[in-house]
Amino acid sequence: MQTRHPIIEMRIFGIVKSILPFLMLLIFTASPVHSHTDTDDVPPKFILIHLDSVSSKNLHAEIEAGNLPNIKETFYPGGIIPYVITYFPSKTPVVISSLRDGISPDESRLVGWAGVDSETGKTFSGFSSFSQMLLSKSRLAVTNILYGIPVIDRFAGLALANLPEALEKYRVLEFYWYAVDTYGHFYGEEPHLKKLRVFDKHLGRLIQRLDDDVNIVIYADHGMVFGEGVDIDNDIREIAGDRVKISSYPNLYINKKEEASETARMVVEETGIDFAFYKTSDQSAEGIHREGTMQFFYSENGIRYTYEESDPLGYYEAGYNGEVLSFQEWLELTHQLKYPVTPVKIFNFFTNPRSGDIITLMEPDKFAQSKYSRSGNHGGFTYQDLTIPILSTGPDVDVLQGRQTMWLRDLFHDIEGIDFGYKPSRDDHYLEWWMNLDDRQNYSRVSLSPWYRWRIGADLSYVADPLSVDHYQLWGKFDLFRSYLTRLWIGGGADFKNGETRPMGFVRHEFRIRKFQARSTLSTAGNHSFSLEFNVLPPVYLQVVNFNSLGLRLHF
Hints:
CATH superfamily of the largest domain: Alkaline Phosphatase, subunit A
CATH architecture of the largest domain: 3-Layer(aba) Sandwich
Distance between the termini: 39 Å
Shape: elongated
Number of helices: 15
Low-confidence stretches: 1-39
Radius of gyration: 29 Å
CATH class of the largest domain: Alpha Beta
């Protein structure tokens, strides 16, 4: 004969009775989690990974050495475009601020870390460039920059592991993997390559958890040059003196533009700079090197290149005969050479009103050394700087498959279906209940999301009878900040206890790693809390609250 437990039955009945009105409210107020209600209009899923500072040369050497097994298995060979030409100057802010919108180098918002806008006369600093770069990113990816810092870079893999869950709501995710670049700048080539191998390991784990309908696109923003470090900016200041307004490699801004030719020659002859380019007219530019000069002439049909004394770029030896070539023809001719598409890069860059008056550049295996870039750098015009790979796989990226060459600026223009503006129309609704194991105090919470990044709700507490609430709060909160690992809410409302009503403010922080989440709340009402949670099923979480309570959370 089965034994009945009336007290337990009454408690369960009371709890169900107490949450039933909230459940009905959820049913009638629930709206789609995504911003597209017609399933036919839901955009495809994309994971877009910015792999900072990986040249085609190093990627393929590492693949051939067997050091990147997951990249090789997933993308090699048809899913890798080996000869992609990035932006010039080959610097991260230039790429990030331009690529999403497909902005060409002659219109790029940024041309380096510091400089002068010739149209407005205004200078821009490293802080300004850094800020514009961050504002060019998606909201969830802004803090990825922190994961490039040594030691903190260990969080990058944890953040990458959270992408599958985020993908269900956001559909298009942008992720920035910076550690490869940072370690190259500070510690040199071998640590740089080790961080590339670390990325491959975490990428393999991610791919195993993704569905077949997910598109993955990985692109490098530039390469990295190792070898002889030269303190370019300091050398230029010592030699050119008052001629120079701002020096920010490879840009050199001078006070008198009519002195460009003389200053360029002085810089090449007396510093570690190997090449100096300057405009001679709206349709022409000249380059100076230690063994002669070069000229670029622009027309509607393309660019013609000539030289005097010697051809340091090696184009004539590669089959060029002085004819006018289109931008694409220059790409096809020079993509495997030491100095790819130099005529296009130099002329396009001089068209940008923010470009330097003189472009100072160096030969391969030489880099601009600074306190930050002690062991490696980029920003130049060699194959080590400019020639980077694009990796892709998935049902919606056939346009990239099998290519050999490409301009990086065309990446998101060529792929159809990437909706960078897609976001959920709201967050999940949820119900929570937990019980203090010491005093049997019960707590219930209903949390509704009427709009994306907003929540309204109520917290109730009672001892035995769910209908005899002795303390409750009504509140609203706003998602102030979110990343792939963390979320920060600020909120306020009213606290009702013992017949008294008090205003209330609170801050709530969430930290998630896959199925695990930690939440902490600081409140002016004094009921601070900390919880550890585990997602046992997609809508259900188990909770440990303040290390003395157990409970559940149910998502809708």
